[in-house]
Amino acid sequence: MKKLLYISILFFGVTGCTKSFLNTVPSDQVSDASFWQTDADAIAGVTAVYDQMQRAYQIYAFTPETDGITPNGWIWSGYLNGYSAIAEGNLLPTVTTPVADKWKQLYTGIYRANLAMEKIPGVTMDGTLKSRLLSEARFLRALFYYNLADYYGGVPIIRHTLALGAELPGRDSVADVLKFVADECDSAARYLPASYGAADVGRATLGAALTLKTKAFLLGKQFDKAAAAAMQVRNLGKYTLYTDYAAMFTSVAAENNAEVIFDVQYLGQGVGEGSPLDGLMAPLSSFSKGWDQIFPTQDLVDAYEMKTTGLSISDPASGYDPAHPYDNRDPRMDYTLVRPGASWKGIPYSNLAIGTGGANYLGYLPRKHVLTVDGNNWGDSPLNFIVFRYADALLMYAEAQNEAVGPDASVYDAVDSVRNRTGVNMPPIPAGKSQSEMRDVIRHERRIEFAFEGNYYSDIRRWGIAKSLMDGRVIRNISGQQLDIWHFTDALYLWPIPQSEIDLNPKLTQNKGYTN
Amino acid sequence: MRITPFLLTMALLQVNAKGISQNVTYRARNVSLEKIFNVIKHQTGFVFFYHSQDIAGAGRVDIDLKNVPLEHALEECLKGQPLTWSIQGNTIVISIRQAPPAGSLNDLPPPPPPNLITIRGRVLNQKGEPVAGVTVSVKGGKKMASTNDNGEFTLTDVDGKAILEFSGVSVEPYEIRLNGQTDLAVTLTAKVSRLNEVVIVGYGTQKKVNLSGSVATVNYDQEMQNRPITDVSQALSGVAAGVSVSQTTGQPGRSGAVLRVRGVGTLNGSDPLVLIDGVVSSLDNLNPNDVASITILKDAASASIYGSRAAGGVILVNTIRGKEGKAIVRYNGYAGIEKATRLFKPVTDYPTYMKLMNGINKADNPANTDLFKPATIAAWQNATDRTLFPNTNWIDIIFDKGSVTNHNVSISSGNDKTDFYLSMGYRYEKGIMETTDARKYSLRLNLDHKLSNKIKVGANIAAYYNKINEPYDVSTLLYYSANSTPGTTPYQVKNGVLRYGGRNTDDESNNVSNPLQYMRTWFYPQTGQYSFGKLFGQWSILKDLQWDVNGSAEIINKDGKQYKLSGPIQNLWNFQKDQITVNNASVPSVLSQNNENKIYLTFYSTLHYNHTFGGEHHLSALAGVSREYFKYKTSSGSIQGFPSNNTWELNAGLSQPKVTGTSYSWALSSYFSRLNYDYKGKYIVEGNLRYDGSSRFASDNHWGLFPSFSAAWRLSEEGFFKNAGLSFVDDIKIRGSWGKLGNQNIDLYQYMNLYSAGQNYVFGNALSAGLAPTKLANPNITWESTTTSDAGADVLLLRQRLSVTFDWYDRRTNHILVQLPLSSLYGGLTAPYQNVGIVRNRGWEVALSYKDKVGDVSYSVGGNLSYNTNKVLYFQGNPDVIQAIGNNSIIKQGLPINALYGYVAAGTFKSQDDIDKWAKQKLSGSNKPGDLKYVDIKQDGVINGSDRTYLGTVIPKYTYGFNAEVGYRGIVLSALFQGVGSVSRYFNNLWYTSAIRPGREINTDFLNAWSADHPNSNIPRLTNDNNGDNTQASSFWVQNAAFLRLKNVQLSYTLPAKWIRKAFVSGLQVYADAQNPITWTKYKGLDPETGTTTNYQLENPNVRIFTVGINASF
Question: Considering the entire predicted model, what is its pTM?
Fold first, then answer.
């Protein structure tokens, strides 16, 4: 027996103890225990909130593509099938892209902001920086909620991170969400600087918070408050209209100019911080082999006024010559799109059209968001995407003031300053417009000024005119051939709450007009 | 002598076949013969028959036998005694050595003087190895001899016309007429007594008759080694009940075989645990020629000694070890060709294609203009120059014949101290795709050395180096093959310059790809180095107690480079216009290179105790510990812009350098034990216990306990059974088992809240690092546990010629780790794994085999059949919430895992009227005649998501295999069939779809699609519209994937030994083999065995291989 005992001791002695043996930890990730200790951690945590704005499709990366579900553009399916289906009137709550994706990415941003706002107060760091970072996160969270309200209406306002197994709330009203956004902008505005040093360009500013507040009021039809907020932006005195409209959307050199209030920053250079927009919008024949996903319509082309008269081409007095349809038009047309007779990157239109899928489909190609220089990989464009620019603030002011007060001089002034911007120089709006006429003028001006920037889809829903513009619309190419017929129902003014979310949280009610 | 049969019967009744080998080790002085016989009986299982008065006169003897064959032992102990012996079946008969008869015979006339000669010979087994201890005797005479260690014997003064008889414990009896030959080489067939069969089990071996769990063994013989398999898992197809193997690709160097033991138990990796010589590994690390035996542990009782990773079953492989005796050198080589089992048939006549596309386009919208102008079509019809006006069959361009070559040399040798087995292998396979090939060099050394009588040490060393060439990305290539048209020319050489073809007419889409260009200009060479070393020691501490210590390291290094040639070679040409139609010349070239390194360290140590009490109670016990540690490292880099097409190193690149890399590790620590008891080999009980600690879980949840119990009753050993007169029954065993196993196959660090890097942003035009969690942690996560109950029987009948095994089982996996969908309100985080879900696999298996010999013809037939039903018993706790997998399958309570799910197609709409009368069907567009119509299951007048239903299971209900073999004088013909039944497959991909786009191939299967010309067709109309209704998941795309396949057929001929002996060859076999030659199936995809998980649901086809080879030993 003694022998057996020795053997057992030897046996288990050799095989040793294992407590630490089983504690392996990841070598490329930081755990909860070691993060949120220093100011660098706080900065990195907030950077991750900004990062969320770059997500494809859902937040801003694909926003201009929504012009393809307005009379401005047409999407030839492919990569953007989800949007095409919307234009064709088929939007199901079960659709993942874009409906469930956008919802999810926005709430991811909200989660990251919540996390930063919960953790940063406990970090030992400089107080000013701490307040600023918290306010940046607060602004971004408000921005994400604004987007949710814009697309889905009222949504649950989540102010804290949720633990596994937590009870999930139902929807707040759209008014509550917009009030939350406006209030949060006010809170953030207290600590956000009006501008940053060179190394921090791209962070949320005071102007950004005020512009977002304007947008929230406008969406909530609180026109007096919207006008006041827009006036606050003007009164900051920081912003002017940029002198080169075309370059603003096609040139890296024009980035972060004085018209930009807030944008999504991109870098390119193969470091994972590039924009996919260039690749989606550029023609197939471009160096970076674009995908020709979206095309300006004849309808948009026809909407550009005559330069000299400032009149619509349908007006006999406009000076429009059907034989030379592209002559003497609002210069923004040629800044926005490629049409017959024009050239792109030095390639004449005729060569672009030959052998490229794009022009064959519709006859026009977009210019905005497509670099005019070669050298970038597909989906890795360095061009920033402008979320808010000063022209928007001016036109929002005009709209809000016209609705709240009527077409006073400040309204004319705001609209004219945009029309009259350097390089565009359209004639001023003739005096004597009624409130309703001025409303149409402003709507037209927004459509033209922001064509292919992703504002129009939100605008036509906000104005309640989407159905009349979209339903039954026949899409034809430049030679009149029918490509598509669009449909729009009342339900489509909002997207459905994703069915997958309702399945997981029965308190979520569906938007009107959607069943599955 | 009349009493003999009776006594013989009595003796047989007392057979206690408990011995393990047929060798004898015994050392004693001055013992009686009876005592010796008793010892031999215990060690070998052979019983003695003798009249006690015969041995009464024999004296006591001194004896010293060390692991000698039974025949030697008998000779030794009867030396100098007036006794002789013979073996009849399992009985050794001892009788008085007869003195030469005298007297009356002398009165007969003397026989003619025989022509007396001296015979020398050598006896070999079928592997060409010498067989020692075979008794060679002259038929009807008294002369006999025994073969020595080299299989040699000498007989003097034998009649030249005599017949020699060969007999021995381990060989089938054999006769040969001398006809004056003096120099013999005889090949004998090994005799297998199924009662003595020994199988490997967890951490040891056991006699098959004494097993109480459900264990399958694979007869891994010469025939198996002759098959052109790349991977041992392929050898398991169809050979064992309850084991299914699908060969998912025919791509060289990629094994792709998916193994399942008794269905799919969980959602997280149902791969069985594979151990090679006791160490966890993978079957593709093994040279198929080195395999000695394979055992599959199917139920929890046999597998639970492997605890936390055994839920998917366990496959134990032992490799060949050296044997004491003269060195044997073996060579096995084969070569052959391979072809796809099946390929798609595209429309290859371009005018037909163009007219079809025009028709589709017009049918979609009458206002559409023709895609292809009449002039273009006419030009093709009238043309003779097929470079300018091609009708290309891209399938023919991409796929061709492949080939395979294999050489394997092994040496096995040993003396009383050291044995070794050495093998070297080379295999080359050229794939059926032009730029795919793989070569592999492998070697192995298995060494055993006795330091003393009590201590043995040894080593297994194995290594390989392989090199695989394939296109940059095979699934992209296959995508390109579907993304082309017959109107594209593969290539042209003009003025000595190679150009690849694009579209030849502007009517064609400019998006058409040239798969040949891709295949020849985009590359992905890879190399892998594998090294494995295991050292072990064995100490027989006491007579019944043995300590084993094993330590091993497995190191795998792999690297691969992906790059493409750049410059004008990437342009696509319109050969008619002689101009570039797609200019890619300035697209920068990119190289991405990646390295990965895996280290897997194992240490385990066991104590074995084995004792028989009172001759009838046999107890064996095992205790052990094991530690495993795994570390994975990877790094990769990429860079753009290379100065030439010959400098594919990272250093040569110009711009956008990028690096990534990471590493991770896990560890497992275990304690295990087994207790096995049997009474007279009649009642057998066994218990196993394993305690596993895994680093994959939080420290509170590291440890799990996995018990199992089993019992067996050998009914045939009972007196009443023996008296029942069922003499055709040799053995019956009834067994039952219960046990619990674990599964820890989930991603690492699931319990930790982690911040992922890379959530970066840009400030001030510079990169700024961001960190954020990307998944939600679940600190409570723990094992999945699988409980299996098994009841079975093993029966041997008809003098062991027929064996039958039956098993019924119920396998339930609890706490299945599932990533439950998580509301986005949690922040869009990846859902954590949670222990929810129960899946049951229930079924039965039966295996039969029958072997016999009629005259010179030996034959065997065998078959196995398994039936398994898979059902999700519980999922998420809410039966109404379903989890969609992809768009066509579902995990739902009451259905099999990943059940096919969708609409039930009821043919096509024949007219607008038909559409109007049908339930409102608007899933993604408005319908037209020719669209699929779906059944309104809910009967609410609307076809929507709630009308989807169960469409079939992807887990086969039946898997079966059967084999037959017939041999005649060295010629052996064998065939193996494999099949599955009651299984469906969702098949809708670019090669099999009604969603046609310009610039895409059309499968001839769809020529009969609905159209105005085929108004009765139930194949939906071809369309390039956006209407996705026809490609919604529906029963139209669900196919019967049942198949029966002639998996292997082999004809071999072992040359008579006398023909070849002079050529220094001791054994020579030639053979021809066909792998996958015939398949019977209704499935329309490439191969019913291959998977459907590639990016574009396009598969690299499976292959048929035809080889011829030789097998020689020296």
Answer: 0.76
